[in-house]
Design goal:
With 342 residues, this protein is of the alpha+beta class. It contains ten helices and 13 strands. It has a single domain (12-333), classed as Alpha-Beta Complex (Sulfite Oxidase, Chain A, domain 2). Bound molecules: the ligand Nc1nc2c(c(=O)[nH]1)N[C@H]1C(S)=C(S)[C@@H](COP(=O)(O)O)O[C@H]1N2 and molybdenum atom. The site of the ligand Nc1nc2c(c(=O)[nH]1)N[C@H]1C(S)=C(S)[C@@H](COP(=O)(O)O)O[C@H]1N2 has 17 residues, from loops.
Length: 342
């Protein structure tokens, strides 16, 4: 007996009104660029609010340009596109948390440019009908790619708005088949101390016990918002953002969105998670964005939305319950004390 997958209900688009972020200017000429690259038919099918994602977006970012990212073909999913102004790509790719490459915000872009993503192997195993092993090409070719723009809210009270390219976790789990009785899904990042300085040295890696691991309940994993990103701004992920594939769970604090994933295991028990292991009183398993439950050391009531000017010029905006995705996910937590299960 296997889990019955839902039909994939298209939810209403959500919207919040903040306009403090500088919009990405490069989209002005998207039609011409789509035509020039021979994406005519796809371009015509894209709604006007979509991002063509086929630009050279790293031109002002010296370090990032060392890693080759390639354009992806995708359909823009407007039903899953936040209306917030996008965070400029140079901020998305240079202000990162990826402790395997160091704990400063600029460490990942500085230290990850030689990261080898090809070959890559992603294993899907555990309580599934058919375990799968995906290689690098499968990641972008096995499931039709779509683009969604999500808010990303870090537990450190800063946030970004990022156009991701990828597919839903549920579409991947559907290929493997989820056995009845499965309760959780566990995720694991690559363990490769040769490539990751933070895994060689405890101080560089911020004290995290590697490999970095994360987890979701089965219903969170099967929610239509839960996304596996293989690209951002229309091109394959740069290493600092979790190449070649990373999780994106937009209603949870950013640390749930585990990068450079090598294993997805469907299980019958709640898996251990890296930040919870490090400081259980500060980081819970659920980690739902919640302005009413403060971090022990700082308020979660508001956040700095990173725009063109960077973190310290970023405007403080109120944090929304479930990061504004309550309509899609609040029902998952009915009857659960979110103060206790933070
Ligand atoms: N493997 C791994 N995944 C990780 C992290 C990390 O240190 N290692 N940091 C997390 C945190 S705290 C955040 S906020 C997001 C940041 O994603 P971004 O750098 O693409 O914005 O990645 C998450 N995924
Ligand atoms: Mo974070």
């Amino acid at each position: 007996m296997s889990h019955k997958f839902s039909k994939g209900i298209i939810n209403k688009a959500w919207q919040i009104n903040d306009n403090e972020v500088t919009p990405e200017p490069i989209f002005q000429d998207r039609r011409n660029i789509i035509k020039a690259l021979g994406f005519g038919a796809l371009g015509a099918a894209l709604p006007t609010t979509s991002h063509a994602g086929i630009f050279d977006l790293f031109k002002d970012k010296k370090a990032a340009s060392q890693f080759t990212t390639t354009p992806l073909s995708f359909i823009s999913n407007e039903a899953f596109t936040a209306q917030d102004p996008l965070t400029p790509i140079n901020k998305v790719t240079s202000h990162n948390n990826f402790y395997e490459f160091g704990t400063s915000k600029h460490d990942p872009v500085d230290n990850a440019q030689g990261f080898i993503v090809k070959p890559w192997q992603l294993i899907i195993d555990g309580e599934v009908d058919t375990p799968l092993t995906l290689d690098y090409d499968d990641l972008t070719k096995m499931i039709a790619l779509e683009e969604r723009t999500y808010r990303l809210r870090c537990v450190e009270a800063w946030s970004m708005v990022i156009p991701w390219t990828g597919f839903t976790l549920t579409s991947l789990l559907k290929k493997a088949g989820v056995k009845n009785g499965a309760t959780h899904v566990a995720f694991e990042t690559l363990y490769d101390p040769k490539q990751m300085p933070g895994q060689r040295n405890r101080r560089v890696g911020g004290g995290v016990a590697y490999p970095y691991v994360e987890g979701l309940t089965i219903n969170e994993a099967l929610n239509d918002l839960t996304f596996l990103a293989v690209g951002l701004y229309g091109k394959t992920l740069p290493p600092q953002n979790g190449a070649p594939i990373r999780l994106v769970v937009p209603w949870k604090y950013g640390f749930k969105s585990i990068k450079s994933v090598v294993r997805i295991t469907v299980t019958k028990r709640q898996p251990a998670t890296s930040w919870n292991k490090l400081a259980a009183n500060e980081y819970g398993f659920y980690a739902n964005v919640n302005p009413q439950v403060d971090h022990p050391r700082w308020s979660q009531a508001s956040e700095r939305r990173i725009g063109a000017g960077g973190l310290f010029s970023a405007k403080r905006i109120p944090t929304q319950m479930f990061n504004g995705y309550g309509e899609q996910v609040a029902s998952l937590y009915q009857g659960l004390d979110l103060r206790k299960h933070f």
